[in-house]
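Render this sequence as a predicted structure.
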Amino acid sequence: MRVYQIVIDTNVWIAALRSKRGASHRLLSLIDSGKFEINISVPLILEYEETAKRLVGEIALTEQDIDDILDYVCKVANHRKIYYLWRPFLSDLEDDMVLELAVTSECDFIITFNQSDFRGIERFGLAAITPQQFLRLIGALS
């Protein structure tokens, strides 16, 4: 069985924290399942933390819960350094950070709800797909 390399866009992380019902939450619950490997960088983890902690009070998680989740992700993910060598490529600099991480990690997919923001990434051998599409691909969603 192939183990896909992925980067998870921040919008998917936020969706997973907001609801336990959707594909985003299911994806996060499978992080250490062996079905795929996630790739992170320091800037991406900091973005995850900043955006998640802005939701405290709106979601059922505390700052400590968010820290615990991020600690776990950091424990099981592949850590990569990015060097900002060829920006800008996309219209949003934060999307460029995600793309550069995916390229550096030799990923198969960027998991995002904003597929249109990643137009042109095919030239790097990547595809931007939704959590639901990815879960179907790995047989984790009926």
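Summary. The CA atoms of residues 108 and 126 lie 5 Å apart. The longest helix spans residues 63-76.
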